[in-house]
Amino acid sequence: MQAKRIIPCLDVDDGRVVKGVKFKGIQDAGDPVELARRYNDDGADELTFLDIGASYKSRATLLDVVRQVAAEVFIPLCVGGGIRTVEDMREAMNAGADKVSVCTSALQNPALLTEMARAYGSQCVVLSIDAKRVEHSGSEKPKWNAYSHGGREDTGIDAVEWAIKAVELGAGEILLNSIDADGTGAGYNLELTRAILAAVPVPVIASGGAGTLDQIANVLLPPGEQGGDQWGNADAALVASLLHFGKTTIPEIKKYAESKGVCVRW
């Protein structure tokens, strides 16, 4: 059984880690280098850095942070936010990133995914989908749209269809952010997670909503481990607020998940 990953997410703005609720109400959460060092020592499987400012200036600040972190930690680093070209990707990789995440730029220019995959391999290309449930007629099935510009603009593009197309173009992994659940502590969007997993053959990282150890275990559990719909079967869980504000630790998350039947890496 393949081990599931626990990935701390550091949203970085102006050189600091920040966190909000549903992409709003941003507050300071600490120094990114100190947090990265702690999570590395605690057994994180990867680290994700997202530049929420996504301007040239903020990306340059983020890359300085990545260089400092890459010199100290020994786990994969994913960098996202403001990556608009293969040259931007090259700068991130040269700074120490092992892979990059793109969202708005890929929606605006889907061919970018192919260009990036050709340059570095699809395993280095992560498509970040900021998805939000939308009302629609004609079907009882739920529908989620992909949002751009930090979750502010509805593209009208179906999130599941976008995931399928993006993988065909070269994305090697999906970072699935539920805007509805982000920062709420109410749990991951399991229905959305399962819909994306059923549609694509690449790993899916669940993000947004972790509030308890049980919720983290549930999004990683394969079907059959628990009754009802309390499973997600994601390949990895992104965790932010719970870790940044000292509500739990990575060893506690892994120990609990393992007790529920999730295969984790120690």
From TrEMBL:
Gene Ontology CC terms: cytoplasm
Superkingdom to which the source organism belongs: Bacteria
Catalytic residues as annotated in Swiss-Prot or TrEMBL: 11, 130
GO biological process: L-histidine biosynthetic process
InterPro entries from the UniProt entry: Aldolase_TIM, His_biosynth, HisF, IGPS_HisA/HisF, RibuloseP-bd_barrel
HAMAP family membership: HisF
Family assignment from sequence similarity: Belongs to the HisA/HisF family.
Name of the protein in its database record: Imidazole glycerol phosphate synthase subunit HisF
